[in-house]
Design brief:
The chain is of the alpha/beta class and 255 residues long. It has two domains: 82 residues, ATPase, nucleotide binding domain (Nucleotidyltransferase, domain 5), CATH 3.30.420.40; 123 residues, ATPase, nucleotide binding domain (Nucleotidyltransferase, domain 5), CATH 3.30.420. The chain contains six helices and ten strands; from the N terminus they run βββαβαβαβββααββα. The strands form two sheets. The chain has a five-stranded mixed beta sheet, sandwiched between helices. A five-stranded mixed beta sheet has the order 8-7-6-9-10, with helices on both faces. A hairpin with a 2-residue loop joins β6 and β7. The longest helix has 29 residues. It starts with a strand and ends with a helix.
Length: 255
């Protein structure tokens, strides 16, 4: 079985694949202070009972990636390991000014999006610490995208800077017009971010239409994606395991 690990700034997502099917996944907090042994204790407790014969990893947290390398050398030295970094075959041409700036997770998501929706361009909306919109051509090329502050980080910043405002539970309010401070914050956050995504997607689609025909697939992923599903007017697919799928595909490409 293949273990996939996607280390993000806020959360780490792990998944175990049996062939091409995802057997189980987990989401845990990312702590950049964790040592290699602490990572092993956490991960081994989750995957107990699964016979792991392969490992595929991507990370946007350099300190955690360093400890992951140590963990792999100590505890996974007898299996084939793929770490998404320069020199790894991804099959994703990076049509940007500086390919070295592109995070591994964005490349992995682009490959998964093109594999799942091969007949059109794609826009991946990844709701994480930041909100990433990644644009993929019908040929599977990474064209670039847009980055914005994420939902939770924006709520935290507002609570920290506004004396009379506070963090609230991120659930839909009774109406867009909030009748109290909590509902007003919930409305502005959830409907506001949905509107932000829709506005960016519309503008991206206008630019894509000058070069490519057809309507792009707009794919939501990330831990906070469920907040805007059903509210966004442009998101038409939800793939919560998109990054894990991409890690599996890259592992297979580098067999």
């Amino acid at each position: 079985m293949l273990l996939t690990i996607d280390v993000g700034n806020t959360n780490t997502v792990l998944g175990v694949f049996q062939g091409s099917g995802l057997a189980r996944s987990w989401r845990v907090k990312t702590d950049p202070r964790n040592t290699a042994d602490e990572l092993w204790l956490q991960y081994s407790a989750l995957i107990a009972g699964y016979e792991i014969d392969g490992l595929s990893v991507c990370s946007t947290v350099p300190s955690t990636l360093r400890e992951l390398r140590t963990m792999i050398a100590t505890y996974f030295s007898d299996i084939r390991v793929t770490i998404v970094e320069p020199g790894i075959k991804t099959g994703v041409p990076l049509l940007v000014d500086n390919p070295k700036e592109i995070g591994a997770d964005r490349i992995v998501n682009s490959l998964a999006a093109h594999t799942l929706y091969p007949n059109s361009s794609s826009i991946v909306v990844d709701f994480g610490t930041s909100t990433n919109l990644d644009v993929v051509s019908p040929k599977g090329e990474f064209l670039g995208g847009a980055l914005a502050p994420g939902i939770e980080i924006s709520v935290d910043a507002l609570a920290a800077r506004a004396a009379q405002l506070r963090k609230v539970e991120l659930v839909l309010p009774r109406s867009v017009i909030g009748k109290n401070t909590v509902e007003a914050l919930q409305s502005g956050t959830i409907y506001g971010f949905a509107g932000q995504v829709d506005g960016l997607v519309h503008r991206i689609c206008q630019e894509l239409s000058a070069t490519y025909s057809g309507t792009p697939a707009v794919i939501a992923t990330g831990g906070l994606a469920p907040l805007v599903l059903g509210i966004s007017e442009t998101i038409n697919h939800h793939e919560p395991d998109l990054t894990l799928i991409g890690l599996r595909l890259i592992h297979e490409r580098n067999a």
